[in-house]
Specification:
Number of strands: 4
Number of helices: 11
Order of helices and strands: HEHEEEHHHHHHHHH
Distance between the termini: 43 Å
Helix content: 55-70%
Strand order of the largest sheet: 2-1-3-4
Largest sheet: 4 strands, mixed
């Protein structure tokens, strides 16, 4: 015999079920984050860099500018490597990280420095003191300031679109995970300072940052001259994500109108070292 259901009970039960599922997702997410880091490298080949990064996204190779930066750096320097999609963060609680001959290194800046030393790379050797200082300042501005405007746009201004960055048809589980994560991301935005500003103020700051990079680039082929450097890898990581993975943003709009030199700069690098950009994007 079927049981009678009171009017409205179905919706109430659905809400309770979703809330309960959300709680379970949150618990599993936090449990995973707090688990002590361990990486089994026993099956890794010697002298091959294993790049661990977030899974591919729907608009390009990766949603993270830091992952794009490292993948480009490895390609530019023709270092043998294997890209490993992972949701397991590194020993510093961050992505990306690499494993090389049993050693694990995290933080993209530390990784670049490690690779330059380990492989005796010369891509920055031709730079003078002033050029290095300029590259350093541009990289720090983009990665420590402008980056947070990307985070704000994704996780606050357009957070309902976020699941579609990672899947063409996002599952309920993915949607709940991202919704749970968005709370901590918005707290991080507030703690960093970007989250305390209005959208208009963030837009103004972003425009100033991008105009500054465009002024430094000028008509040069690359950021500091006619040869690519590690600073270009960092700049491309940030600018390419803004240009091709932030639809409808001030970042995209500005580079397609007033600051077309930045768009052309990204396109040059993409054509030469990341021509498979579209092929790497998630298709499902």
């Amino acid at each position: 015999m079927d049981a009678d259901i009171a009017p409205g009970c179905g919706n109430s039960c659905l809400v309770v079920g979703v809330v309960a599922l959300g709680a379970v997702v949150g618990f599993l997410f936090m449990k995973r984050r707090n688990k002590k880091f361990h990486l089994d490298t026993s099956t890794h080949k010697q002298n091959v860099v294993y790049l661990f990064q977030f899974p591919r996204c729907t608009l390009g190779p990766n949603a993270s500018p830091f992952c794009v930066k490292l993948e480009l750096f490895l390609r530019v320097n023709e270092i043998e490597h294997k890209v490993c999609s992972s949701r397991k963060v590194g020993p510093r609680g961050k992505m990306p990280y690499i494993a090389y001959n049993g050693e694990v290194i995290s933080d993209s800046d530390h990784i670049v420095k490690f690779l330059i030393r380990e492989f005796d790379l010369s891509l920055d050797e031709w730079l003078g003191t002033q050029q290095r200082a300029t590259g350093h300042v541009v990289q720090r501005m983009l990665e420590e300031n402008t980056y947070w405007s990307v985070v704000h746009y994704r996780w606050d201004q357009t957070r309902d679109r976020l699941p579609y960055l990672f899947a063409k048809k996002p599952s309920l589980f993915l949607t709940l995970v991202l919704r749970f994560m968005s709370r901590s991301v918005r707290k991080a935005l507030y703690a960093q300072g970007m989250g305390r500003h209005t959208v208009a103020e963030i837009t103004d700051n972003t425009q100033q940052d991008l105009r500054s990079v465009a002024a430094i680039l000028g008509r040069k082929e690359f950021l500091l001259g006619d040869r690519i450097t590690s600073y270009d890898c960092a700049a491309f990581g940030m600018l390419s994500v803004m240009l091709w993975e932030l639809p409808g943003s001030v970042h995209e709009s500005l580079m397609n109108t007033e600051l077309q030199t930045l768009r052309d700069y990204c396109q040059r690098i993409r054509d030469r070292w990341m021509s498979d950009w579209d092929e790497l994007a998630v298709k499902t």
